[in-house]
Design brief:
mainly alpha; Growth Hormone, Chain: A; 21 helices; 0% strand
Length: 489
């Protein structure tokens, strides 16, 4: 603020023109929208099947061998998920803030995307080839840090590159790539681990199959990450912004003001707060529902081949999601109303979770999967667009999206602790099946809360007016290698 006050009227006009131009960049073609979202496919392929399928199968080799879905295994799975989520909570806003202010020849987001990919390859190697539980946990830690780093910087490309009139379409492409990556992840994991069953004999007999299947899954994921990152670095170009020298400022309290501006100011904007809370409740419900679905099939529905049942249910759900994702995203750009879509989507997912509570095993899986998928796809199609619309400042888009992403990671900390605690205590009382039902009941409640809270968001209809006529001055500023003082900070 102090630096901004010291600017001349001409400098302020240039800065306002720059910000207007950055809020409404040139429209993107379908090819550019697809290139902008291709990495979501690879990131979700690696991560989607980890907690629901691959990690639970590998845990059978480390914790209570011969048992399936007991309290100790649920506790270990929950602890592993919570460790990863705590790590992501710390990494997300830090990477977002750093990427907002990074200036390299690659751009401001690409260095973190590339660095995260390199660390992820190390983590996947540990998960694939280690036989020690400590290295297994370390590998999971590396994968979470890398995934968080790459995805946090990657999502910052949307406000950087996409005009407000195309945010729904961009979010729809993101949702589509997310769902396709998730479908591919679960399908491949199910195929590779299809021999895992809930009998002690099978677990011992096919221990080598678990190791081999998981290793192949990680190798395929690593190859997809390499390909997607290369495509992103080549086709999604950023314009480097050289830094201007900082202006000396010895004002008392400067760092306190800067801290408040970066980390506290966003919460003073009601829309940002409501969007954050909506995502937090929806993700909390989803985390409780998806983390324990494999062990639910084993303990409650008494399905012998629980890994395959989990994957089939997930693929059915994601098939329904594909039907709604891209269509709803484009539609939201036309009607300019995203909150009601999120509310209806949350209601669909809550109904599905409730069915697993009150009628386990008595309802066919395919209608439940499709119903859940329709809601999940609609939610994914507008989730990011709703968040970008609610950003307090586009200059700090990466940092603020990092804060918003904590609405995913904070519930991911709470859900495993809450879910595994309930299941473990129920198991001590001989009521393990009831514990899983109770967890799914909580998932229903949180999904409903998300569906209600999003209706508090006050959306605005965006006027697609051209940016102020300062483009020539902005080009001259960029060509001279200088930036306004306030924008350099």
């Amino acid at each position: 603020m102090l630096a901004q006050a010291s600017q001349s009227p001409a400098s302020l006009a240039i800065q306002e023109g720059r910000e207007a131009f950055e809020r409404n960049p040139a429209p993107l073609t379908r090819r550019e929208l697809l290139s902008l979202n291709i990495l979501w496919f690879a990131l979700n392929f690696v991560f989607a099947a980890l907690l629901p399928v691959v990690i639970p199968a590998q845990i059978l080799l480390y914790v209570s061998p011969g048992a399936t879905g007991d309290g100790w295994q649920a506790l270990f799975l929950g602890g592993l998920a919570a460790l990863g989520a705590v790590t992501a909570v710390i990494v997300q806003p830090v990477v977002g803030a750093l990427s907002d202010r990074t200036s390299t020849r690659l751009g401001k987001r690409h260095p973190y995307i590339l660095g995260g990919a390199i660390v992820m390859l190390v983590g996947l190697s540990l998960l694939a080839f280690t036989h020690q539980i400590s290295l297994f946990i370390l590998g999971m830690f590396f994968v979470v840090v890398a995934h968080t780093t790459s995805s946090t910087a990657y999502q910052g490309l949307v406000p950087d590159r996409v005009p407000s009139s195309q945010r729904g379409a961009a979010s729809g492409y993101m949702g589509l790539m997310t769902i396709l990556g998730t479908v591919g992840s679960l399908a491949v994991a199910s195929l590779l681990l299809s021999q895992v069953s809930a009998t002690g004999r099978a677990l011992h007999t096919f221990a080598s199959d678990i190791t081999r299947g998981a290793s192949i899954f990680y190798i395929v994921g690593a190859l997809l990450i390499v390909i997607a990152v290369v495509v992103t670095l080549i086709l999604v170009r950023e314009t480097p912004h050289p830094r201007a020298p900082r202006v000396a400022d010895n004002t008392h309290g400067r760092w306190g003001q800067r801290f408040a501006s970066l980390w506290i100011e966003p919460w003073r904007h009601p829309n940002f707060t409501w969007v954050f809370l909506t995502r937090a409740f929806v993700v909390l419900g989803l985390a409780l529902f998806t983390t324990y679905i494999a062990y639910y099939f084993a303990q409650v529905a008494h399905v012998a081949n629980f890994v395959q049942a989990t994957a089939i249910n997930a693929v059915l759900a994601l098939g329904g999601a594909v039907l709604s994702t891209l269509v709803v995203g484009v539609l939201s750009d036309r009607v300019r109303r995203r909150a009601p879509i999120v509310s209806i989507a949350g209601g669909f997912m809550a109904l599905t979770a409730l069915a697993f509570v009150v009628a386990p095993g008595s309802i066919p899986l395919w209608p439940l999967g499709i119903l859940f998928g329709l809601g999940y796809g609609a939610y994914m199609s507008v989730d990011l667009a709703l968040a970008v619309d609610a950003l307090p400042s586009h200059r700090d888009a990466g940092k603020d999206l990092g804060l918003w992403s904590m609405a995913s990671t904070l519930p991911a900390v709470l859900a495993p602790m809450l879910g595994s605690g309930i299941i473990f205590l129920a198991g001590l009382m001989g009521q393990t099946a009831f514990g899983y039902r109770a967890v799914f009941g909580l998932a229903t409640l949180f999904l409903l809360l998300g569906a209600v809270f999003v209706l508090k968001v006050r959306e605005k209809r965006h006027a697609h007016a051209p940016a102020p006529d300062t483009t020539g001055e902005l080009i001259a500023v960029e060509a001279s290698g200088t930036r306004p003082v306030a924008d350099a900070q």
